[in-house]
Design brief:
Blueprint (H helix, E strand, L loop, with lengths): L17 E3 L2 E2 L10 H7 L4 H10 L7 E3 L1 H31 L11 H22 L3 H22 L1 H4 L4 H21 L5 H11 L34 H22 L12 H5 L3 E11 L7 E6 L4 E6 L14 E5 L5 E3 L2 E3 L2 E2 L1 E3 L5 E3 L15
Parallel strand pairs: 1-3
Antiparallel strand pairs: 1-2, 4-5, 4-7, 5-6, 7-10, 8-9, 11-12
Helix pairs in contact: 2-3, 3-5, 3-7, 4-5, 4-7, 5-7, 7-8
Length: 374
């Protein structure tokens, strides 16, 4: 700032998290969509992924990418709305006018309203982009495509052509102008599709953003090129393949991360086991050992005496919660000093996959203190 010539950030937008099929994305666990694989498995569908990610961007809260939603975004929006409108418009132009843009003979009230609405979209979309509301900007782009689709469906040029050829000229001219405007406005979101549509419309490549406010980008008599589908449907089999691929990754991760079961210790004789005196006891008092995170100082009634035992269970049990708890205790373990406290015995615990400890204690509540565990 003091030096003066550097361009400093004015706004640093930040998103929340995007999950994948309900789980956090993790490249180390292969829980991810790898772009090099995507481009091989979904050829010429770069923009479909861009569209889905933008539409699901976690701008205000966590969001989820799922392959089913990816399929729905493609089939129900890009194919059924945007692609359908463009394809019908271009196909009908070739059918009725040999690919030449017809003259808009006369505008009715609805046509004028449509022209006014078309001119507003560059400012709407730009305002959303400039405020980092990309999902909103994309939604506005699709609203323009919906408007074109509805205009074409409401005016039914394929029926009206039989009775009012001049009216169809206007309808097709306006539909083509919307296609031209879409070419400019979709470029930030769907750059490959924008280029493809521009070539089909034989549109000037030097157009700027504000040119999309115009409704005469395609002049009367302008020759458009042959129509082809902007998008094609994604089949269930393709989605099932991707979901199964992730499921396989999940199983592989679980297998790789499954904790190893400790190997059996060296064999002992029955006499060795008989030397251990394990009894049922009840915790009478419990308190944390100062300056430690793991240790609790316990006073235990073993049935043969009341003794102090220091146990490393403080991370799993609160002192106040275990008063009156019956436990299994090895009573003939040689005493040892822990943090200046003589500990006489050891509490038996089990350990789960996460390393958490749980008391080994009698299931029935009619076992007396001092009962031997055999």
């Amino acid at each position: 700032m003091a030096e003066g010539s550097y361009i400093l950030p004015e706004n640093v937008p930040a998103n929340e998290f995007l999950n994948l099929e309900g789980n956090k994305i993790s490249t180390s666990r292969n829980w991810a969509v790898w772009l090099h694989e995507y481009l091989l498995e979904f050829k010429d569908k770069q923009d479909v992924l861009r569209y889905t990610l933008c539409a699901n961007a976690p701008e205000t809260k966590d969001n989820d990418f799922t392959w089913k939603d990816f399929q729905a975004k493609n089939n129900n929006e890009l194919v059924a709305i945007l692609g359908n409108f463009v394809n019908r418009t271009l196909v009908l132009t070739h059918k009725y006018y040999d690919g030449n843009v017809p003259d808009a003979a006369e505008y009715n009230k609805n046509d004028i309203l449509l022209l006014e609405e078309i001119s507003k979209y560059p400012a709407k979309i730009a305002a959303s982009i400039e405020n980092y509301r990309f999902r909103e900007a994309l939604a506005e782009l699709m609203n323009l495509a919906r408007m074109g689709n509805k205009y074409l469906a409401d005016n039914e040029p394929w029926i009206v052509i039989k009775t009012d050829a001049k009216r169809v000229q206007t309808v097709m001219n306006l539909s083509l102008q919307i296609c031209a405007n879409l070419t400019i406005l979709m470029e930030p979101f769907l750059p490959f599709t924008s280029e493809k549509l521009g070539k089909m419309l034989n549109l000037n490549t030097g157009l700027k953003w504000n040119d999309a406010t115009r409704t005469n980008l395609l002049l009367t008599g302008h020759k458009i090129n042959a129509a082809s589908l902007l998008f094609d449907k994604i089949e269930d089999e393709q989605v099932t393949f991707q979901v199964n691929k992730l499921a396989n990754s999940k199983m592989e991760n679980e297998a790789a991360n499954k904790p190893e079961i400790p190997s059996q210790k060296p064999e002992i004789t029955f006499d060795d086991f008989s030397k251990m005196d394990i009894r049922v006891g009840t915790i009478l008092e419990a308190e944390r050992v100062p300056k430690t995170d793991k240790l609790l100082k316990l006073k235990i009634d073993t049935g043969i005496d009341i003794r102090t035992v220091v146990s490393g269970i403080a991370m799993y049990y609160k002192p106040e919660d275990i008063i009156g708890q019956q436990v299994s205790i090895l009573v003939n373990l040689a005493p040892r000093m822990l943090k200046g406290i003589e500990s006489r015995g050891m509490i038996l615990c089990s350990e789960n996959d996460k390393g958490e400890l749980s008391f080994v204690s009698p299931i029935k509540n009619n076992v007396n203190n001092g009962a031997m565990i055999k």
